[in-house]
Design brief:
Layout: H1 2-10, H2 24-35, H3 39-48, H4 56-62, E1 68-74, E2 79-85, E3 90-94, H5 99-110, E4 118-122, E5 134-142, E6 148-157, E7 166-174
Antiparallel strand pairs: 1-2, 2-3, 3-7, 4-5, 5-6, 6-7
Length: about 190
């Protein structure tokens, strides 16, 4: 199952068309999705690109208080953080993001799964903060016979005061009882 999911996770990363080159979805596809089943490769890639590692006191917010690592990525339009928790939850945070563009790109990236997987839109009510400024959407990929599924979550905020205006994450969760115990990350975008 893991090898099949690993291969499937790579496919949409190359299929996304036309978001800006430094968009949250491009970074999410090139980090979390590309390296989900090879997280040592993600750590190496972040080091090789010279992305500075966040000090523990700053990383804590992006890791939801869990052990892991976080890196800063500076792009022309905004600053990003790539966070990899030791429990394999991987997320990308954007300091500034256009919510509509982020949702459109995220949907294009994960709303269709490669065969033999089935993509399903999930009830995101419990997966993100709830207020008048935020929007959360979630999708999963799995086969009917699988016990686990890949869960993809995007939360955006239109608040200018938000620490992060967008957060995209992925994790492997059990689907038998809709257990999302690996999510959500702590904090409000």
């Amino acid at each position: 199952m893991r090898k099949l999911l690993a291969t499937a996770a790579l496919l949409p990363a190359f299929a996304v068309a036309s978001p800006p080159p430094d968009s949250i979805n491009d970074l999410f596809a090139g980090t979390c999705m590309k390296h989900f089943y090879s997280q040592d490769a993600l750590r190496k890639a972040m080091s090789d690109t010279g992305a500075p590692e966040a000090p523990p006191e700053k990383a804590e917010f992006f890791l939801g208080g869990n052990p892991g690592k976080a890196w800063f990525v500076i792009a022309p339009s905004t600053a990003y953080v790539v966070a990899l928790r030791d429990d394999t939850v991987c997320a990308v945070f954007a300091q500034r993001a256009n919510a509509d563009q982020a949702h459109a790109g995220f949907s294009a990236l994960v709303s269709t799964a490669p065969v033999p997987f089935v993509a399903a839109k999930q009830d995101a009510a419990a997966l993100g903060p709830k207020d008048s400024h935020t929007r959360t959407v979630a999708y999963s990929w799995s086969r009917p016979e699988d016990k686990d599924e890949l869960l993809f979550v995007l939360t955006t905020s239109d608040s200018a005061d938000a620490t992060a205006q967008a957060m995209a994450s992925m994790s492997l969760v059990g689907k038998a009882n809709n257990s999302f115990k690996a999510m959500p990350l702590r904090g409000t975008p």
